Amino acid sequence: MTTERKQINFTIVPDDSGDLPRTYANFCAISHSPFDFTLSFCEVMPLTEKDIQAAEADHVIKAPVRAKVAVPLQVVPNLIAALQEHMRVYGESTSNGWDKSPVH
């Protein structure tokens, strides 16, 4: 008895019917394990004089984590490709000449 496998092609789209708030983050720290990448999205606020003085000793500024997302290793290449494609389209649509140098 042979079982025939059927291939089904489909597109996954976000279901925004829930009431999830949009979270702002202007910094992303990335770490990884052998199994996944973890993206920690943080909000870095303008530094006060007190913050600057405190950071002079240990050269560390703490930023509150707004969201942490674990991404399976197999998803990372497609995530990178999608981000690059969106940046290309954004650059073309705005004639912005996006600076491709790393931010760190």
Description:
The protein has 104 residues and is of the alpha+beta class. It has a domain at 27-94. The protein contains two helices and three strands; from the N terminus they run ββαβα. The chain has helices spanning 49-58, 76-94; strands at 27-32, 36-42, 65-72. Strands 1-2-3 form a three-stranded antiparallel sheet, with no helix packed on it. Strand 1 (27-32) and strand 2 (36-42) form a beta hairpin.
Oligomer status? single chain
Total beta strands:
3
Question: Which blocks of ≥5 consecutive residues have pLDDT under 50?
Answer: none
- Counting helices, strands and paired strands, the structural category is alpha+beta
Order of helices and strands: EEHEH
Q: Whole-number radius of gyration?
A: 20 Å
What fraction of the residues are assigned to beta strands by DSSP?
Answer: 15-25%
Largest sheet: 3 strands, antiparallel
* Total count of helical runs of at least 4 residues: 2
Average pLDDT figure: 89
Percent of residues in helices? 25-40%
What strand line-up does the widest sheet have? 1-2-3
Task: Give the N-terminus to C-terminus distance in angstroms.
Answer: 59 Å
Net shape: elongated
Based on the model shown, name its key terms.
elongated; single chain; alpha+beta; 3-stranded antiparallel beta sheet
Briefly say what this structure is.
By secondary structure, the chain is an alpha+beta fold. The chain has a domain at 27-94.
